[in-house]
Amino acid sequence: QVRLVESGGGLVQAGGSLRLSCAASGSIFSINALGWYRQARGKQRELVATITTGGSTNYADSVKGRFTISRDNAKNTVYLQMNSLKPEDTAVYHCNTAGASYYYPWGQGTQVTVSS
Predict the structure, then answer these.
(1) How is residue 101 annotated by DSSP?
(2) Would the pLDDT of 27 be above 80?
(3) Torsion, Cα of 24, 110, 81, 42 (10° steps)
C-alpha cells in the first residue's frame, strides 16, 4: 500500500518561507499527476498546486507567484516551495494525486502556521 509522508512545516512569520516535502513509498510518482492540498481549521480542503508527469504546473490564484511545486521521480518526492507566506496560508498541508479518480491513503500532513 502506498504511504505518503509530508514534512517541512512549522511556524514562520508573515513574509517568510518554508519548503515542504512529500515522500511516497513505492514508485508511483512517475505515473501520476500530483498535487499539494491544504485544509485550514473549519474549512474544506483545497488544492493549491499541481504538477503533471511532464512537469507542467498549475496554481490556485491565492498562491500564484508565491508557491512553486516540483517533483523528483527518482526520489519519489514532491516539493512545495512557499515564499512570501501570509497568515491565511496557515493550514495542514497534504500531497496526493491530482486530477485522478482516486486518492492514495492520506498522510498525516504537515502543519504550517504563519504569524502576523
Answers:
(1) S
(2) no
(3) 120
